[in-house]
Known about the structure:
globular; about 15% strand; 10 helices; 7-stranded parallel beta sheet; single chain; alpha/beta; Rossmann fold; 5-stranded parallel beta sheet
Amino acid sequence: MNIVLLDTLTFADADLSGFDKLGDVMCYENTTSEQTKERVSDAEIIVTNKVVITKEIMRSAKNLKLICVAATGVNNIDIKAADELNIKVKNVSGYSTDSVVEHTFAMLFYLTRHLRYYDEAVKGGFWSKSEIFCDLSYPYFEISGKKWGIIGLGAIGKKVAYAARAFGCDVSYYSTSGKHQDKEFQRVTLDELLSNSDIISVHAPLNKTTKNLLAYEDLSTCKDNAVILNLGRGGIVNEKDVAKLIDEKDIFFGLDVLENEPMHPHHPLLNVKNRNRLFITPHIAWASRQSRERLISGVLANIKESVQF
């Protein structure tokens, strides 16, 4: 089998040797839209994380049997065209759940405990000049007893809910589809969740329902000192509105995903005044070493299950 991996940079140092046991492998660190058609022309199996595979590209790859998406979402694949052309499409689900859950709490504590300030205060020598044994410049709160609202109670959202409850939080959730029912946690409207929650975390997919779900008017209803964390998809939280609101209201934002990635060098979030209320990580919540290993194992399993060797 001719196997083409189109964007191996997204796997970092994960072991890809397993693919060599399944066929003739060609690896590319990254692939532009202009390069895709040529690189997959002889492929029987394509492995892609973010590279878009259109109907035109599928038709040009005459021997293509399988597209493996090294991710959960398949929005970069023309699924309808794949069905028409009898090309299988396989994704990997559940590989990043623990990694995203842990990153959710890492972002929360970084913001609420003002860890950036305290780290710089120590390393900058400020603490050494203190007249008392500690520095209490930025008081912080415990999350026990706080209300935590979750937008999207899927596998990741539910595991966040369990962890939040273990910390003593009162957990509720909003169903973005309107269909999800969970007996363990209280389901509320979006308005109720935004106005009542001390901590809000987003773990939903991006679709027509969730696009621009949290914009200026919605976020303005949040409590003072509320913490909003987006670990779902960029585009769910309106970033221009966040940039405006963060300088108007006592509110904290943690973002691991943006609408356009990588971040534009002139993004409005880079110009906010209250930078201590904002924490952005470059779409890494999913990417623990173990998570990437599970992802590669899942892709290999999909190949073995889908193709006769």
